[in-house]
Write a structure and sequence with these properties.
Layout: H1 2-36, H2 50-54, H3 59-70, E1 78-95, E2 107-113, E3 117-124, E4 128-149, H4 157-161, E5 165-175
Antiparallel strand pairs: 1-4, 2-3, 3-4, 4-5
Length: about 190
């Protein structure tokens, strides 16, 4: 009887260990795919714990963690962190039929530049005006989940323990570029029926 009990306990422990190792293997293979992905149109998410993120020397991840602290987002509520950097570049030329500049050898080239935008203006005789503009956007997106009561919280703490709760998902967007204003964002979480 003791042998059967010992074998049963050993089988249960080995099954749990096997399940944990299989989960770790799946996470590591997903992270390997994410790191080896070379497609710009498709991004595979990294699956890392906060302890691993804190010991990473990547500047983007360190910036995400600093912004998380600045926005007062708790670790237990945090589900996803996203860092997005993009830029747009436009080059426009305006050719006027009338002569604007008097002198035939007139040529003026100037640039207005800061961390987030660059605008270069090129004016030439007789009436050519060229504008070369570049704008950089850098934003962090944080997805958090928190359990909240469906009804307003009861004033007595024991009653609050037994109130029905649901999970509220919040999406916090932090745009670093002061020239860009987020106008409309819709985030949909697809759930099973």
């Amino acid at each position: 009887m003791a042998i059967i009990l010992g074998l049963t306990i050993t089988c249960v422990v080995q099954c749990n260990t096997n399940r944990n190792l299989r989960h770790e293997y799946e996470v590591e293979s997903a992270n390997t795919k994410a790191l080896l992905n070379d497609k710009d149109s498709e991004i595979i998410a990294l699956q890392l714990s906060l302890d691993v993120l804190r010991h990473t020397n990547d500047s983007t991840i360190q910036n995400l963690l600093k912004q998380q602290e600045k926005l007062n987002i708790k670790n237990k509520e945090l589900q996803t962190m996203i860092s997005m950097a993009s830029q747009f570049h436009v080059y426009d030329t305006l050719r006027l039929h009338d002569t604007i500049f008097k002198e035939p050898n007139f040529w003026m080239d100037t640039c207005f530049k800061d961390q987030w935008r660059t605008t270069c203006l090129d004016m030439r005789y007789p009436g050519d005006i060229c504008v070369d503009a570049t704008m950089v956007s850098k934003k962090e997106v944080y997805v958090t989940a928190k359990r909240e009561t469906i009804e307003p919280p009861h004033w007595f703490f024991l009653c609050r323990w037994f109130q029905k709760k649901h999970t509220v998902t919040r999406v916090i967007i932090n745009e670093e570029n002061p020239y860009i204003e987020n106008q409309e964002n819709v985030y949909i979480r697809v759930v099973d029926d």
